[in-house]
Amino acid sequence: MKIKSAVFVESNTDWRKCPEPIMPEYAFIGRSNVGKSSVINMLVNNKKLAKTSSTPGKTQLINHFLINESWYLVDLPGYGYAKVSRKDRAKFGQMIESYILNRKNLVNVFVLVDSRHEPQKNDLSFMEFLGESQIPFSIVMTKIDKINSAKLGKNLMKYKNEMLKTWAELPPFYTTSATSKIGAENILHDIGVYNQQLEDVFKKD
After folding, report:
1. N or C: which end of the chain has fewer CB within 10 A?
2. Nearest CA to 96 among 39, 140, 32, 151?
């Protein structure tokens, strides 16, 4: 898929105020400082679209971007470094949880994890929340340029092995580097496939 246009639409704190759900939508989320904004900018080939910062937690709103005038890319707030547990869903924030559970046109959630680290409890807990809520998601491993291939392969296998303890099948995995522009093509290709499959659902009058 070629990106012909990428335009910021609006920011909200309430899913009910988001743009009318007449197009497929793909959300990106991860722990603070995982490199989410950089990955989004890489995907749309625009370094200034999503705001990047060295300070964790910069994104605090539900940010909608219209891509190719045909689908939405959504930049969600990170779920931070706080400890998480399945008993306390408030860990993700009411805003994020309400958006994910109620947004009817949400096709897939891309969960970003730092490739340099072994599986983190809050990442795994968030994925469990998505799975229990029957929300399709994919895993995007970021910053692979900052790690050697052997370490990357080891951490990738650890993620898969950890998830197979509770999951019958694994979600798609992507490896990315915003610096080296690796991984954008694969993600955009799959989004294009999703969009084609949903043409009848979101067909315009």
Report:
1. C
2. 32
Selected residue with higher pLDDT from 204 and 172: 172
Please give, one letter per residue, the 3-state secondary structure of 54-72. Answer: CCCCCCCCEEEEEECCCEE
Whole-number Å distance between alpha carbons of 191 and 183: 13
For residue 164, pLDDT over 70 is answered with yes
d(CA 2, CA 45): 10
CB 43 within 8 A of CB 132: no
Handedness of CA 72, 8, 175, 138 (dihedral sign): negative
Beta-bridge partner residues of 6: 67
Distance of CA 33 to the CA centre of its chain: 13
Question: Amino acid identity, residue 181?
Answer: K
Interatomic CA distance for residues 133 and 115, integer angstroms: 25
Instruction: Give the mean model confidence (pLDDT) for residues 96-120.
Output: 94
3-state class (DSSP) for residue 2: coil
Per-residue tokens: 136:
């399709």
User: Which tens digits make up the pLDDT trace of 54-79?
Assistant: 444 445 789 999 999 999 999 998 77
Bridge partners of 114? Answer: 142
